[in-house]
Amino acid sequence: MADPRATEASTKHEVPNRSDFIPGNDTWTQWRNIFAILTGKMSDEGKEQFRSARDARNEVADCTRCENQRDYLLQFSPVIRFMSDSIRQLGGDLSSHNIYCRRCTSRKAGGFDPDYGILLCANEMKDQGHLEDTLAHEMVHAYDHLRFKVDWSNNLRHAACAEIRASSLSGECRWAREFFRRGQWKLTQQHQECVRRRAILSVRARPGCKDEAHAEKVVNEVWDSCFRDTRPFDEIYR
Fold first, then answer.
1. Of 9, 103, 115, 204, whose Cβ has the fewest other Cβ atoms within 10 Å?
2. Which active-site residues does the annotation give?
3. By the 8 A CB rule, do 179 and 163 touch?
4. What ranges does the record give for the region Disordered, renumbered to this chain (predicted)?
């Protein structure tokens, strides 16, 4: 008869307790964590713990940089200034007092809330160009909310249309960003595919959506009219 203690020992050996993220703010600990990531020895859970610790450690610097870039774009970016003027003409007001830079715990770049304004996730901003695209995306949402009375909570078709327009008009789906940042190397229909992909992902994340097939169906239903609608621009600007 087999020794049960041997079986238990074998099981423990086959499934080691892996704790590959090492807490600590000193340089040596940081390099050990980075080396584990680069060599593929850190689990997905460990990578997320590393990112969370890094974001918390850099929160003040990230938010300060985000606020400086936000203020610069509000003053000098053609697309941001145009969207600000278009929103103002509809009775809205978006400026530094209601465009917030914060550390986000969910892996998103930003968000729009009709009651509070725009959130920019400072710890997710790669550079000023990324922040400009994100801010433009959320400003298109703000414009749509004022112009078309979007029902964000209960109408998936409204949400799908808003996401199609925001992804198409903000610049986040332009060819260079898809090619160099996201590894999408197709030479034709790249913009349309990016817009469709991002709209489906956004609709899929909403509570009223059943599954990916449902999200794709809703996006397809509104695609033609919403993709063609470039207001307040005369055409796709970026």
1. 115
2. 138
3. no
4. 1-20
